[in-house]
């Protein structure tokens, strides 16, 4: 792949040269379906034609609201083929409140200004309910009315003349806040990332990727769709909902298809190790798995060990455990570890880390923390660790991780206001904290007040907004944060809210209502809800609720 | 593995099963042991039990009551309340 190319050129070359090659094995409830490049692209071509017929022009945004499956993949590719900018919005789930979902969709529309929304016939009414007089949406398209393109002529479609610097798609993180911040990626950035990352992974068309990751998240979209597609590596794809209920299906799929590569968020290591029965692993052979890559939330050595111990009897090799640090703003991967040699484990002094921000190798019996290396930068990506004044810090000093690469975002779509604070002197400021040692990156924490649950980024302000609307909560006096849970391998989400009421029953009602409303309004479940007295919450000097300080206060309270 | 064959009478078995399940849910999943749980309260469709915890509940039921819970059973269409869950377990025995 060359950076002078665009995605439609690569896809055309693939379908011309190797039409019968299997692109995707879809694992469904009623059995597996194999899609060749010929089938996949003909159906995608149908979507491209439907978008053209609807009057969508090159460079206009199309929001796709479909469930995880063939239609979603084909509609996304169809958008790219005709030069539109596809963006995936998560589908409404059973438990989500339609009203909150509508608010999220309206938030996305307000900033991203899509001209079209594609969804199922049954969902069209719901989409209309989120539209406002005078907004950008010209058409709501019915996915069931899209026919396959009989004569696939990719070269006649508007996207074939796109420029490498043109935006190819948008990536969002979840929640109202995340949906207002679309990462705009160019053909060039995507192709550069995949070329560099494939080199780091030594990934080729002989690899088989097995994934259950959702496609509205960068890890799923890139590693569990776009990257294998462009490299012609077969992709075995199952739905995140199916995996969550039956995690063993991932292992059966690796065994059945000879899977070589899988990306997982840290919690999945704990989840799989603890919740799969032996009876569901009979005859499973994991010896083909050459890399199981831990990414998208804080990585723990203990989680990987737990996973290895559980699955080694089924052929999982210790050298398959790999690590990665990624950012949607860099398309995906920033670093990769554990491919040629095991990811380093750095045992550092806990006091020096917590009190001085230094990563000093632990001596003797002093309290220590095991840090798992995220590896070294992928080709063409450069890393620095910066202090508060954005000065370059030496190795083993904790600071903000910053990066430069040939695959950075074009910008935040229609949000140039966010770009100024995201960059300093040409370096993208990740908001994550960490240190470098012998060229390896170790991520130690986070400057940004983000909660990461099961690999998903959650903005605390979205949860606080919902909780603040609950009757009995003192206006504006609520805070949300995450606390890492060693057992589950991810963060537990906590909400602390102030009330004027001293009645125990009333406080219990408020806690229950906050839990219920957050459950219905977001795709996460709260683990702890604490209703506290007035003036419990700490504020910053500028009068804002101080999330980190309140987090510390809460931890101290529950520990006593 | 513990099997619930220690209870002889249907009535006490039913009551005990319900109490055990409720206790597991409020203590292990909701982390709020004082919380009251109504027999007809929606657990899954309301999001009270999230998908992470649903598998925990299934494993607990398998280990405690000696029935098998398939992944296709983990849906609000099969059971959404404590009462429905008890019926499901009784039928699966």
Structural overview:
The complex is a heterodimer of chains A (560) and B (93). Chain A is of the alpha/beta class and 560 residues long. Among the domains of chain A are: 342-360 and 376-446, Luciferase, Domain 3 (Luciferase, domain 3), CATH 2.30.38.10; 451-559, GMP Synthetase, Chain A, domain 3. Helix content of chain A is 33%, strand content 26%. Chain A is built from 17 helices and 28 strands. In chain A, the strands form eight sheets. Chain A has a five-stranded mixed sheet with strand order 11-12-13-14-17. In chain A, strands 18, 19, 21, 22 and 23 form a five-stranded antiparallel sheet that branches. A four-stranded mixed sheet of chain A has the order 2-1-10-9, sandwiched between helices. In chain A, helix 5 links the parallel strand 5 and strand 6. In chain A, helix 2 (37-53) crosses helix 3, helix 11 runs parallel beside helix 12 and helix 15 (460-468) packs across helix 16. The longest helix of chain A has 18 residues, at 504-521. Chain A is globular and about 70 Å long. The mean pLDDT of chain A is 94. With 93 residues, chain B is mainly α. Chain B contains three helices and no strands. In chain B, helix 1 runs antiparallel to helix 2 (51-65). Chain B has one domain (10-92): Orthogonal Bundle (Non-ribosomal Peptide Synthetase Peptidyl Carrier Protein, Chain A), CATH 1.10.1200. Helices cover 49% and strands 0% of the residues of chain B. Chains A and B meet through helix 9 and helix 16 of A and helix 2 of B.
